[in-house]
Amino acid sequence: xxxxxxxxxxxxxxxxxxxxxxxxxxxxxxxxxxxxxxxxxxxxxxxxxxxxxxxxxxxxxxxxxxxxxxxxxxxxxxxxxxxxxxxxxxxxxxxxxxxxxxxxxxxxxxxxxxxxxxxxxxxxxxxxxxxxxxxxxxxxxxxxxxxxxxxxxxxxxxxxxxxxxxxxxxxxxxxxxxxxxxxxxxxxxxxxxxxxxxxxxxxxxxxxxxxxxxxxxxxxxxxxxxxxxxxxxxxxxxxxxxxxxxxxxxxxxxxxxxxxxxxxxxxxxxxxxxxxxxxxxxxxxxxxxxxxxxxxxxxxxxxxxxxxxxxxxxxxxxxxxxxxxxxxxxxxxxxxxxxxxxxxxxxxxxxxxxxxxxxxxxxxxxxxxxxxxxx
Length: 375
Description:
GO molecular function, one term: transmembrane transporter activity
GO cellular component, one term: cell envelope
Mean pLDDT: 84
Number of domains: 4
Strand content: 25-35%
Number of helices: 5
InterPro entries: MFP_Cation_Efflux, RND_pump_MFP
Keywords: Transport
Oligomer: single chain
Strand order of the largest sheet: 3-12-15-14-13-16
Largest sheet: 6 strands, antiparallel, barrel
Protein name: Efflux transporter periplasmic adaptor subunit
Shape: rod-shaped
Helix content: 25-40%
């Protein structure tokens, strides 16, 4: 019996001890959420209080992509009739001007083409004279209709041949109007069709190139644009004509103003679409293939907000301090949204209606709480 009484007494003492520990722990947790500052400490720390403000906050869409060139600004240079590359001075990255000679190609077929054209022109004089003669003879019936018709057909055939040979000469860069028996050449010049720079050089001196081979790739950079990736859920926030601010990873402070010119409606396997933006001012530092980041303001809405100095980050969460009384401030978790012009949107603002917050130097209060917990 005595042992039973002793056991019951021990259990009661242990239970009382546990309750006291829980109560002490509860008091400690409550005290650990409240920072106490005297008037002097508040002044030294620069603590200022105020209410949440109703402000217009813009949501910003963060995107990334790279600089692209439209197909019409990328040109592949070939030799229409083929030949041996006699000379070129091009190197990748070199700037060229429209009409500049970028290569010289030679081949015996160019000699033959010029010969055929000049021969056809010389024969045309004879055929025209023969046609006029047969026409006069036919009028007096001194020549049959058949002979006259044959002369007429020969004249038309010769003119077609000369016209075709003339176009072939133009195709290889030879002006037929300036061609005569004294300036026949075995070489033809290849001229740059645009002003821009060289992207690729695929040939070397002495190599024979066929008409299907690409000698050089040229890029006209004046119409480069920015291609950005946007997720399906954000497509309805964008529209043609919307302003975009872009920047590179190397120069985040250098901003480039752009405008959306095209929004793709074709989604890829990862549920993204391309949007194309035009640079308002061309910068030679921007090269095709260069990766860039972009920011797009997508909405303006009124929201309750606090100054950025009122928000503290601790253990991957956002907090603010609510004034309990003149000298005590309670740390409270807040859900933040977009930020603009030094203010942060508070998404769970309805919980804090009428509350007074610490609006500056909230980190001083956080340091005070951390120091107290370490004691």
